[in-house]
Specification:
It is built from seven helices and seven strands; from the N terminus they run αββαβββββααααα. The protein is an alpha+beta fold and 200 residues long.
Length: 200
């Protein structure tokens, strides 16, 4: 991160930021330190930064996030967690870690009910940042990339984790149906589309 960007964030402590892309993170702090660059950064115009994110799995109305460790290119040891497009975080604190020569930005995932967020949502709408991104979106991206095995694996893992009455469940079954239809497996496509309709 540039020093200028960091200074702007420090001035914005207590306010909110949103991400306009998928945010890939890790639960492995040692790995996060490696990614940050830490003491290896020699560019005076840049700062090594690590994000420390607090995300409550019970928070209603926030953009979803999910562990994708089982899908990670680098294996389960990366402990990757993906936050969806449009996720909003409160900047809780920014501190300097002198031992590791980096800045630590403490963020907290918030929902649309958080105070003072209306201007941010208006900005997001103006910039066409998707408001309907959900947990199924990641599987859809795999599917559009032609990575059908990864997409199927993600949908199935998601279905294991979701209760049957979750609004994402019929979307997931429908997505599986679309996935099999794209591979000319019409029997499975029909089966999953039927299941999706039953749950809607």
């Amino acid at each position: 991160m540039t020093i200028k960007e960091l200074e702007e964030l420090i001035k914005s402590k207590g306010t909110y930021i949103s991400v306009n892309t998928f945010l890939s993170t890790t639960r492995n702090q040692n790995l996060a330190f490696v990614y940050s660059g830490g003491s290896e950064n020699t560019d005076p115009s840049k700062a090594s930064v690590m994000l420390d994110i607090e995300a409550n799995t019970q928070l209603q109305g926030a953009k979803p996030f999910a562990s994708i460790a089982h899908l990670s290119t680098f294996g389960a040891q990366e402990e990757e967690v993906l936050f969806m497009i449009g996720s909003i975080f409160k900047i809780v604190d920014i501190t300097r870690d002198e031992n590791n020569k980096m800045w630590v930005i403490k963020l907290m995932l918030v929902n649309e009910e958080a105070n003072d967020l209306k201007p941010l949502f208006e900005t997001m709408k103006k910039n066409n940042i998707a408001q309907d991104t959900d947990l199924v979106s990641l599987g859809n991206i795999f599917s559009r990339m032609g990575k059908f095995n990864e997409a199927e694996k993600y949908y199935r893992e998601l279905l294991k984790a979701l209760p049957q009455d979750d609004p994402n469940a019929p979307k997931c079954y429908g997505a599986l149906g679309d996935l099999f239809a794209a591979q000319d497996n019409h029997h499975n496509a029909y089966s999953y589309h039927t299941k999706a309709l039953e749950l809607e």
